[in-house]
Design brief:
Chains A, B: It holds the Pfam family Dak1. 2 copies of one chain form a homodimer. Chain A is of the alpha/beta class. Chain A is built from 8 helices and 14 strands.
């Protein structure tokens, strides 16, 4: 295993030290592993997300104006613990309640639920929205039902914008739910990522083999197949999404790298996605192309499609200032 | 070779199609390979850069308000041709002259010079600044003298800010020169990138071996050595920089991924860089952590240090809106 690390034991702590130094607008509690906005916004619904590490910039990179108030990063590919999520919830709370945005993995759902109960004991009202946008498989290694992947970024952005506008907790939760319901994702891996503590790739693929429908922790997808030209891979992903939720009208498209795939290839994938979507009579109204929800050094990509409404477009366009997304201010 | 491409022949065209679709604020001439701002700013000094492709987001990702006016991407790791650079220069020209920002590689320097002569025939005044911030080696595979690498981003940012403020061509060139002279870089590779047309990595490293001082096209560095803990690698890079230009006062630090290295590791590297720099009595006043000048899917990182002045800090902080850098607006 070749990695830029001091040791597998210090990967998270070292990254959190780096995040703390790079982003003085954030407060990073390295010991308890909570990343929060340095300045609390009074009377705003707080937004908290979290999950295993290894998906950077998710979620810490989305803490800031117009998006999350706090994030709880667990060990690599491992859920944060309830006390840690409680601390993040307390950091995000300014009296208007807190939304938990939880990717649908069994450990995450359980630990966020326990944290929500602890927060209620603390008189913080919590509503949870579970994201499950990945159409690849029903049930998976760590999940009952569908997995939450790239759609989570859309949920965090639009819910964050709504909270920033002053919407109440139920409204913010309604918007988060709607964004999740209108988002679908599909991922394809060329080479698995390597968890530092494991020291070898999560799965092995032959030189001409790829995994269709891979999860963000290297969970198996629908099938293994042969490497094919990019337009066929993008077509496979979008066919899978379209079969589940027809791609129609104005859509937001995220072409996301898994961490080990360079931007030049992601732009090529985006070009093919636009061609596919326009060929199906829809319009790519908004986009992101880059590394937004990664799987360590995995080579591969995912596509997320969100069917926009006027309200979702407006909230997507609203100003945001976080380490990983910044516009309008 | 596993890549997300249609074929090695279409990599650049496919990426340019993607860039065109993703960024409507840019005009992309796919046939002639010029990326320019869709709206020309009257009476502003124009800024043009370019070079081989495979370093994305460099340079196309830095075209926009406050930075470049046009970029000319060549074939992968290959200089753009003079006619192409001339088109970029014409696109950038609005009557106040054009600055060419050229990374020091023999082909780039030659082709930009020819393009500058063609532009002068066209009554466009051109001044060129050649970047050569990489301290790793004197002379290299494609270069007489030092190579231009991460410092080029700093040069493009501060010169772009000066031009946006209304500075004249000589002033913009003076600031670009100063930013280059105050910047130093050093890169370390864990695994070489693969040029699509070549089909295999540019060089081979054993499982425990790394390249110290690697160039952005996989050129050899100072030596091959053993993989070591991250703080030692960062120390090696900063020692090399410090020996050439003492790290002192307020500095800008860019911890840059080569394309195949995930963000979690880059943040760890940044933490070690901050510790080293503070331990040497200097202060990290500004930073970037992420993929800013890549080498296809190469695994590794580089560190760029710029010794700031009040003027450089102000110009770095000035509003910028490009695909890859955006703040203040």
């Amino acid at each position: 295993m070749k990695k830029l690390i001091n040791s597998p034991d210090t990967v998270i702590t070292d990254a959190l030290r780096g995040i703390a130094s790079a982003h003085p607008e954030l407060t990073v509690d390295i010991e308890n592993r909570v990343i929060a906005r340095a300045e609390k916004v009074p009377d705003k619904v707080g937004l908290v997300s979290g999950g295993g590490s290894g998906h950077e910039p998710l979620h810490g990179g989305y803490v800031g104006h117009g998006m999350l108030d706090a994030a709880a990063p667990g060990e690599v590919y491992t859920s944060p613990v309830p006390d840690q999520i409680l601390l993040a919830t307390q950091a995000a709370d300014s009296g208007a309640g807190v939304l938990h945005i939880v990717k649908n993995y069994t450990g995450d759902v359980l630990n966020f639920r326990m944290a929500a109960e602890l927060a209620e004991d603390d008189d913080i009202r919590v509503v949870s929205v579970v994201t499950n946008d990945d159409v690849a498989v029903e049930d998976s290694t760590f999940t009952a039902g569908r997995r939450g992947t790239g759609g989570t970024i859309v949920v965090e952005k639009v819910a964050g914008a709504a909270a920033t506008e002053g919407a109440d907790l139920d409204t913010v939760a309604r918007i988060a739910t709607e964004a999740n319901e209108r988002s679908r994702s599909f991922g394809i891996a060329l080479k698995a990522g390597t968890v530092p503590a494991a020291g070898k790739p999560g799965f092995e693929l032959a030189e001409d083999e790829i995994e269709f429908g891979v999860g963000i922790h290297g969970e198996p997808g629908r099938e293994r197949g042969k490497l094919a030209p990019l337009h066929e891979l993008v077509g496979y992903a979008l066919d899978a999404i379209h079969a589940d939720l027809p791609v129609d009208g104005d859509v937001l498209v995220i072409v996301n790298g898994h961490g080990g795939t360079p931007l030049i290839e992601l732009y090529g994938a985006f070009a093919e996605a636009v061609a596919w979507i326009e060929g199906h009579g829809a319009r790519v109204a908004r986009n992101l192309v880059g590394n937004y929800i990664t799987s360590l050094d995995q080579e591969g990509f995912s596509i997320t499609v969100t069917l926009l409404t006027d309200e979702l477009t407006r909230l997507w366009d609203a100003p945001v200032s976080t380490p990983a997304l910044r516009w309008g201010m």
